[in-house]
């Protein structure tokens, strides 16, 4: 059973069941809370009608996530019952119908959040976007993956993957929306090929703000096994927000004096040395030198890949079956 609705209100019953039907999820409606509580723990989502919220609270059901109190013109007493139930929210209908529809659309999605891997270049031209694309391509053969272009001044990850002509929502479209973003809506709305979805930009006027970044990432981790963030070096507050949410942060640097020096400054600015890993590109310095200067351990050394530019120009993306990028993607994602 997906959704448990407890209510005696015919209007509430009709409204919620219609939303469930539109979302394609099964609803079990109980008019007697004492009889319906047997399904309390097994439902993916529990909706407690404001008309029976007091009765349900008096029954002291076990605390669990995914409980919401729903009703029309709810009063202050309902909020007290919601606190007693440990409810995540009180949804006033019909105003809250769009939010509830998004929540219902997520029913049956991942029970635990997906992994978030951030990739940022320690210096300009380090190859962070190429590595981010390779990681996403590699994991997409195994499960739902979202590649997020969080660099407003970058080339556009859709172009590197040959997806620039695909229809779908871009960052500009998300910025024009408000409220909760559904995981399924995001996964099915972005340009995609197979299990790989891409969230990128549609024009040249690009700006990533914190609210949009937060809403996107909340939905992304609910709907994907892996979310790869191609991060900007100079992203302001939005960069800090996204970096804080990363399970793994990969900093790409060329093993050159200027590259490592710039990387050390970025790491110090982000205060991420304790949870970042260094991916080193060819240069005159050793891995030990790069780690010592930046204070970040080396987790991978990435050699030059022959035919990379030609593969990207042909719309195939940077990843090939064999080569440094494929090996690095496999090792980096399997390491955690």
UniProtKB/TrEMBL annotation:
Signal peptide: none
Classification via SUPFAM superfamilies: P-loop containing nucleoside triphosphate hydrolases (SSF52540)
Domain Rv3660c-like CheY-like N-terminal, residue spans: 7-112
InterPro entries assigned to the protein according to its UniProt record, in alphabetical order: P-loop_NTPase, ParA/MinD_ATPase, Rv3660c, Rv3660c_N
NCBIfam families the UniProt entry points to: CpaE_hom_Actino
The protein's name in its UniProt record: Septum site determining protein
Organism: Nocardioides potassii
Lineage: Bacteria, Bacillati, Actinomycetota, Actinomycetes, Propionibacteriales
């Amino acid at each position: 059973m997906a959704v448990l609705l407890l209510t005696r209100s015919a209007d509430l019953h009709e409204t919620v069941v219609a939303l469930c039907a539109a979302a394609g999820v099964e609803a079990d409606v109980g008019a007697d809370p004492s009889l319906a509580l047997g399904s309390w723990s097994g439902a993916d989502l529990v909706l407690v009608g404001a008309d029976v919220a007091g009765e349900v609270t008096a029954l002291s059901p076990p605390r669990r996530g995914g409980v919401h109190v729903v009703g029309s013109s709810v009063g202050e007493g309902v909020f007290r019952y919601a606190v007693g139930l440990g409810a995540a929210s009180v949804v006033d209908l019909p105003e809250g119908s769009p939010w509830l529809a998004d929540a219902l659309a997520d029913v049956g999605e991942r029970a635990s959040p997906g992994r978030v891997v951030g990739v940022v270049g320690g210096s300009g031209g380090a190859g962070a976007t190429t590595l981010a694309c390779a990681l996403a391509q590699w994991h997409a053969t195994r499960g739902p993956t979202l590649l997020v272009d969080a660099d407003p001044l970058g080339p556009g990850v859709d172009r590197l993957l040959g997806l620039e002509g695909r229809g779908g929502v871009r960052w500009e479209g998300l910025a024009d929306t408000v409220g909760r973003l559904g995981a399924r809506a995001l996964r099915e709305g972005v340009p995609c090929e197979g299990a790989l979805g891409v969230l990128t930009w549609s024009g040249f006027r690009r700006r990533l703000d914190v609210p949009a970044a937060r809403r996107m990432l909340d939905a992304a981790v609910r709907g994907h096994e892996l979310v790869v963030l191609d991060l900007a070096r100079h992203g302001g507050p939005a960069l800090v927000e996204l970096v804080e949410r990363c399970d793994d942060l990969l900093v790409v640097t060329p093993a050159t004096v200027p590259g490592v020096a710039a990387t050390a400054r970025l790491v110090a600015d982000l205060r991420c040395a304790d949870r970042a890993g260094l991916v080193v590109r060819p240069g005159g310095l050793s891995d030990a030198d790069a780690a010592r200067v930046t204070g970040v351990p080396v987790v991978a050394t990435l050699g030059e890949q022959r035919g990379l530019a030609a593969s990207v120009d042909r719309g195939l993306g940077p990843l090939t079956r064999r080569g440094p990028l494929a090996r690095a993607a496999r090792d980096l994602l399997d390491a955690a």
